[in-house]
Design a protein that fits this description.
Chain A: It comes from Shinella yambaruensis. Chain A: Residues 29-143 form the Aldehyde oxidase/xanthine dehydrogenase a/b hammerhead domain. The complex is a heterodimer. Chain A is 29% helix and 24% strand. The longest helix of chain A is centred in the last third of the chain and has 28 residues, at 553-580. Chain B contains five helices and five strands, in the order ββαβββαααα. Chain B has helices spanning 27-34, 90-97, 107-120, 126-133, 144-157, and strands spanning 6-12, 15-21, 53-56, 59-62, 75-77. In chain B, helix 2 packs across helix 5 (144-157). Classes of the chains: A alpha+beta, B alpha+beta. The interface between A and B is large, with 64 and 64 residues.
Chain lengths: 797, 161
C-alpha cells in the first residue's frame, strides 16, 4: 500500500459509523406519509365482505338494501370484474407444481375464512361498512381437510379441482447414501417438529390507494408494499397497462416482515376500481382482516432424524416435511418459497455427507403462506438445532463442543451443503465461540446448576445457523420462480446546484436504507451526507426492481450504489481536472471538495456541477459529461451470513410461564454500514423470534375458523417479554460482494425459536420433556407434563 | 346507520377546533381525517397496540377506543404538538439519538405514552420502564433502544416529586 493510499484510509469514513437516520425527523414529528395519510380530492373507500366459510360454493349474492345506505356508490363481486382484469398467475418452472390464479374477489368458490368476496365502494369507510351488513351471500358448504396431514391424503377433498391434487409442491434433495449412514450410526435421534402458523403483524395494516389520471389514462398505486417494482410488473399484465402508464409507489411503510412482500388481490381491486370509477379508491385493512388475510408463515410438520458416529460426527440426516401452504400459491414467490427452503436449509452450517430431505406442500382452506422474516429457516433451524442438542445429550457431549466439532471450518469454505447450497465463507466457528465468550458459558453452566439445586427450572440453549443473503442471479430467491431477484439498480445524479439524488428500486420500510445507502455513497463519491437525497420505493425510479426482502438491499442496493458512485466520481474528477488544469490522477474529492495533491487549488462539487451544466462553453462540448450514472449490481451467488444464539430461560414450575433471562447473539454480517441500525435489526428480529417461540400462533379450529382474531388472541411480544440482547459483531473475512456487505435483517428470527426451544427443553430435561412444537406456551408445557404421567407409575405409586 | 350529527368543540395541541361529526366517529378518525393530524396512527382499532395513544387532559388515552364526541371540552395532545421536523421535542430527539424507531408507525403512540409516564411513573429501574412501556406494541425494535431512550429521559427528569 502506498503512502497516498494510507492517507485515503485515514480519512473519516461514514461506513461503520453510528450515523443518525435521515428518515427519523419526519417520522418522529408525525408527518411521515403512510398510505392512509393520503386523501386526494374525490377519494372513495372500499370495504370488503369476506368469506365466513372455509370452503364453499357461492350460490348467490343478494345486496339487499345496501344501496339505501347514504354514500354507497357501487357494489361489486367477481363477475363484475371479469372483463376488467386478468388474474395474476404465480408461475414456476418447478415440476409437479400447480399455480393457483389470483383474482381480486372470489370466483365461484371461497377457499378460506377471510377471502374477499364482495367489494362495497362508498364515500366513507363508515358507509361502506354499513352497507356490508345488508349483503347476504348464499353458500353451499363443501367438504375440506383443514389439517395438512389430512389434506395430503389421496382421497382428501380438493380445494382447486383444476390442480387434481392438494399437493401442489413436491421436492426432494438427496446426497450420498443416507440409509446406509443410518445403519452404520452409533447414535440416532429423531423428532416430529412443528412451528405453528404465524403472521407478520406489521403495525401498519396493509393499505392501498389507486389514483386514475384521466388526462394521461394512467394509474398510480400507492401501496404499503416492500416490492413495488414487482407489483408494477404484474399489475401491468393484470390491467393491460404499460409501465409508462402504471406507477407503483411505496411511500412510508409501517413494517412488513414479509407480510407486505407479495401481491394481494386488494391491490388489483383498487386499481381496477379507480380506472372503472375514474376516481381515487382507497382500501385500508383493519387488524381482523390482517390476521385473517395477510400472508401467513411456516406451518410445516417436520419429521426428521439425525445419524451420528460414536465420536460425535454428523453423518446423515433424513427428513419428511409436509408444508401447509394455505389456499393459494402467492405471487411472485409461489407456495414453494417457504416450503422448499425448509428442506434446502435443513442441513444447516454443518459438515455432513448424507442427506435426504423431502417436502410436500399441500393446499388447505387457510390464508396463503408467504414470506415471513427468515423464510423456511426458522422452521429448519428449529428442527435441526433440536436434533443437534438431542444428539449431544444422548452422546453425553456438551452441545457447544458437539457443534464445534461439526460446524464447517474456515479452511473448508466454499462448502457445498448436502442440499446444494454453497457457503462462501463466513465465521461459523467464530460466532459459536463469540456467543459463548460473551455469555461466559462455563460460568453460565455453573449458575444454571446452582439454580437447579434450589429447585428452579433453568435451561440454556444454543442455535447455530447460516443463511444465504444478497442472492444474485445464479439462483432465484424462490425455486423456479421466473422473475429476476438477482439484480438491483442505483441511479445517481448530481444536478446543476451540486445536490445529489440517488434513486433505487428497493423499498425501505423501517430498515433505514435512506441513511445506510447515503453512507455508502458518501464514502465512494466523497460528498457530504446532507447533499444526498435517497429515493426509493417507486417503480418509476429505475427500469426494474424486485424490492426489499430476503436480506438483500444492503448487499445489492449498497453494491449498485458503490458502482454508480464510482462512475459519477470519475466524471466529476474529469470535469474538475479540465477546470482546474490538473492531472486527473492528482485529484480526489472528499466532503464535496475536489483537491489536488500537486496544487492548492480546490473546487467544490457545486462549482464543478455549475460549470458542467450551467456555464455554457466552460467545458468543451466533446469533453462535457452529465454527472450521472446508472449501474446495476448482480452479486451472482450471494453470501452466507452466520450466527450463533445463546439463551438462558426459566420456566415457572407453577404457571409454566417461560421467562428469557439472558440472550446473546454473535453474528457475522460482513462489513457493518451502521452499527446502530444493525443492532436494531438484530434486537427486533430476536424479539420476533422469541414471539414465535413463546407466544405467537394463528389457530384454525376444526371448522376452519380463525380463532386468533385480534391482538388480544394473537400475542406479539411487549417490552416486558424481551430481555436486553447481548450482541457480538464478528467481522471476519469479508465476502466477495461489492462493498463487503452481508445481509442481516432476518437472522434474529431464524436463531431465536431454536435457541429458546433448546433452552426450555434443557430447563425441563429433569422431567424428560423435549420441545417439538412452538410456541411453547404454558398450556403446551402443562399438556406435555400430563402426557408424561405414566399410567403404570400411577398404579404402583 | 348515520344519525343526527353533533357539534363538538375540542382543543388539540392548544388550538380549539369546532366540528360537526357523526356521534359514532372515533376520536382517532376525527384527528386523522377531520383535522388532518395524521401523526396519530391506528394499528388495531381494539385498544391493544397503543399506536393511537394521545393525551386526554394530560393522561394517555387510546383514541381508537373513544368517540370524538366524548372529547367535548377536553384538551387533546398529539405527536404533532411535541415538535417539528426542524425542531424535534425532547422525547423525539431521544428516540432519534437511541435509534428507538424503525418503521415509525408505532412511534407517535409511544411518544405520547412516554410523555404521560415521565409525568407520573417512577421509571427508576429497567423493569419499571419495561412494565410502563408494555401497553404499546412495537414490532420493529425489540424495545431495547426504546428502553434506553426512556432511561435517559427518566434520568434527566430525576425522581418524581
Amino acid at each position: 500500500m502506498s503512502l497516498r493510499d494510507h492517507s485515503v484510509e485515514l480519512r473519516p469514513k461514514l461506513v461503520g459509523k453510528r450515523v443518525k437516520r435521515t428518515e427519523d425527523p419526519r417520522l418522529l414529528a408525525g408527518v411521515g406519509q403512510y398510505v392512509d395519510d393520503m386523501a386526494p380530492a374525490g377519494m372513495v373507500h372500499v370495504a370488503l365482505r369476506r368469506s365466513d366459510q372455509p370452503h364453499a360454493r357461492i350460490l348467490g349474492i343478494d345486496v339487499g338494501e345496501a344501496f339505501s345506505v347514504p354514500g354507497v356508490i357501487a357494489i361489486y363481486d367477481a363477475t363484475d370484474l371479469e372483463s376488467e382484469v386478468r388474474p395474476a398467475i404465480p408461475t414456476s418452472r418447478m415440476p409437479d407444481y400447480y399455480a393457483t390464479p389470483i383474482w381480486p374477489l372470489a370466483r365461484g368458490k371461497v377457499r378460506y375464512v377471510g377471502e374477499p368476496v364482495v367489494a362495497v365502494v362508498a364515500e366513507s369507510r363508515y358507509a361502506a361498512e354499513d352497507a356490508l351488513e345488508h349483503i347476504t351471500i348464499d353458500y353451499e358448504p363443501l367438504p375440506f381437510a383443514i389439517r395438512q396431514v389430512d389434506a395430503v391424503k389421496d382421497d382428501a377433498p380438493l380445494l382447486h379441482e383444476e390442480a387434481g391434487t392438494n399437493t401442489i409442491i413436491r421436492r426432494e434433495f438427496k446426497r450420498g447414501d443416507v440409509d446406509a449412514a443410518f445403519e452404520s450410526a452409533a447414535v440416532t435421534v429423531r423428532g416430529r417438529f412443528r412451528m405453528t402458523r404465524k403472521t407478520a403483524v406489521a403495525m401498519e395494516n396493509r393499505s392501498y390507494l389507486a389514483e386514475w389520471d384521466p388526462r394521461k389514462q394512467a394509474l398510480t398505486l400507492y401501496t404499503s408494499s416492500n416490492i413495488p417494482g414487482v407489483i408494477r410488473d404484474v399489475l401491468s399484465g393484470c390491467l393491460d397497462l404499460p409501465g409508462t402508464r402504471l406507477r407503483v409507489v411505496a411511500p412510508d411503510v409501517g413494517g412488513s416482515f414479509g407480510g407486505k412482500g407479495s401481491l394481494y388481490g386488494e391491490e388489483i381491486l383498487v386499481c381496477a376500481l379507480a380506472r372503472k370509477l375514474r376516481c381515487p379508491v382507497k382500501f385500508i385493512s383493519d387488524r381482523l382482516e390482517d390476521l385473517s388475510a395477510t400472508s401467513q408463515a411456516f406451518d410445516e410438520l417436520i419429521e426428521a432424524e439425525l445419524a451420528v458416529t460414536q465420536d460425535g460426527l454428523l453423518i446423515g440426516l433424513r427428513a419428511d416435511v409436509i408444508g401447509d401452504v394455505g389456499a393459494y400459491s402467492i405471487y411472485p414467490w409461489t407456495a414453494a418459497l417457504e416450503t422448499v427452503q425448509v428442506v434446502s436449509f435443513l442441513p444447516g452450517p454443518y459438515r455432513m455427507e448424507h442427506y435426504r430431505g423431502r417436502i410436500r406442500g399441500v393446499l388447505t382452506p387457510k390464508p396463503p403462506t408467504g414470506p415471513y422474516r427468515g423464510v423456511g429457516r426458522p422452521s429448519s433451524t428449529f428442527a435441526m438445532e433440536r436434533l443437534i442438542e438431542m444428539a449431544a445429550r444422548k452422546l453425553g457431549m456438551d452441545p457447544v463442543a458437539f457443534r464445534r466439532k461439526n460446524l464447517v471450518n474456515a479452511d473448508e469454505f466454499p462448502y457445498r451443503t448436502a442440499s446444494g447450497i454453497i457457503w462462501d465463507k463466513s465465521a461459523f466457528q467464530e460466532c459459536l465461540a463469540g456467543a459463548c465468550a460473551h455469555a461466559d458459558y462455563p460460568n453460565l453452566l455453573i449458575e444454571r446448576d446452582e439454580a437447579r439445586r434450589q429447585g428452579r427450572w433453568i435451561g440454556i440453549g444454543l442455535a447455530s445457523y447460516a443463511e444465504l443473503t444478497g442472492i444474485g442471479s445464479r439462483i432465484s430467491v424462490a425455486p423456479g420462480m421466473p422473475i429476476n431477484t438477482g439484480t438491483e439498480t442505483s441511479k445517481i445524479e448530481i444536478d446543476a446546484t451540486g445536490a445529489i439524488t440517488a434513486a433505487f428500486g428497493i423499498a425501505s420500510h423501517g430498515q433505514g436504507l435512506e441513511t445506510t445507502l447515503a453512507q455508502v455513497i458518501v464514502d465512494e463519491l466523497g460528498c457530504r451526507l446532507e447533499d444526498i437525497e435517497v429515493k426509493h420505493g417507486d417503480s418509476a425510479l429505475v427500469p426494474m426492481s424486485s424490492g426489499t426482502y430476503a436480506s438483500r438491499s444492503a448487499v445489492l442496493g449498497g453494491g449498485a450504489a458503490t458502482l454508480a458512485a464510482r462512475v459519477v466520481k470519475a466524471k466529476v474528477l474529469r470535469a474538475a481536472a479540465y477546470l482546474m488544469e490538473q492531472d486527473v490522477d492528482d485529484l480526489d474529492m472528499h466532503d464535496g471538495i475536489v483537491t489536488s495533491k500537486s496544487s492548492n487549488r480546490t473546487m467544490t462539487l457545486g462549482e464543478v456541477a455549475s460549470a458542467v451544466y450551467s456555464q455554457m462553453g466552460r467545458i468543451p462540448r466533446d469533453r462535457r459529461e452529465d454527472l450521472a450514472a446508472s449501474e446495476t449490481y448482480d452479486p451472482y451467488l450471494g453470501t452466507a451470513c452466520s450466527s450463533t444464539h445463546l439463551a438462558m430461560v426459566e420456566v415457572d414450575p407453577e404457571t409454566y410461564g417461560v421467562k428469557v433471562l439472558r440472550y446473546v447473539v454473535a453474528e457475522d454480517c460482513g462489513k457493518i454500514i451502521n452499527p446502530m441500525i444493525v443492532d436494531g435489526q438484530v434486537q427486533g428480529a430476536v424479539a420476533q423470534g422469541i414471539g414465535a417461540a413463546l407466544l405467537e400462533e394463528v389457530v384454525h379450529d376444526d371448522q376452519g375458523q380463525a380463532v386468533a382474531a385480534s391482538l388480544a388472541d394473537y400475542l406479539v411480544p411487549v417490552a416486558s417479554n424481551i430481555p436486553d440482547i447481548g450482541i457480538v459483531h464478528i467481522e471476519a473475512d469479508l465476502p466477495d460482494t461489492v462493498g463487503g456487505f452481508r445481509g442481516m435483517g432476518e437472522g434474529g428470527t431464524i436463531g431465536a425459536p431454536a435457541a429458546i426451544a433448546n433452552a426450555v427443553s434443557d430447563a425441563l430435561s429433569h422431567l424428560g420433556l423435549s420441545v417439538e412444537t412452538l410456541p411453547i406456551t404454558p398450556e403446551r408445557i402443562f399438556r406435555m407434563l400430563q402426557a408424561r404421567v405414566d399410567p403404570a407409575d400411577a398404579v404402583t405409586g | 346507520m348515520p344519525e343526527k350529527k353533533i357539534t363538538l368543540s375540542v382543543s388539540v395541541n392548544g388550538v380549539v377546533h369546532t366540528a360537526t361529526v357523526e356521534p359514532r366517529m372515533l376520536l382517532s378518525d376525527f384527528l386523522r381525517h377531520a383535522l388532518g393530524l395524521t401523526g396519530t396512527h391506528v394499528g388495531c382499532e381494539h385498544g391493544v397496540c397503543g399506536a393511537c395513544t394521545v393525551l386526554l387532559d394530560g393522561r394517555s388515552a387510546r383514541s381508537c377506543l373513544m368517540l370524538a364526541v366524548q372529547a367535548e371540552g377536553a384538551e387533546i395532545e398529539t405527536v404533532e404538538g411535541q415538535g417539528s421536523v426542524d425542531r424535534l421535542g425532547r422525547i423525539q430527539e431521544a428516540f432519534r439519538q437511541h435509534h428507538a424507531l424503525q418503521c415509525g408507525f408505532c412511534t407517535p403512540g409511544f411518544i405520547m405514552a412516554i410523555t404521560d409516564m415521565l409525568r407520573h411513573h417512577p421509571l427508576e429501574t429497567d423493569d419499571q420502564i419495561r412494565e410502563a412501556l408494555s401497553g404499546n406494541i412495537c414490532r420493529c425494535t425489540g424495545y431495547e433502544h426504546i428502553v434506553n431512550a426512556v432511561r435517559e429521559l427518566a434520568k434527566e427528569r430525576g425522581p418524581l416529586t
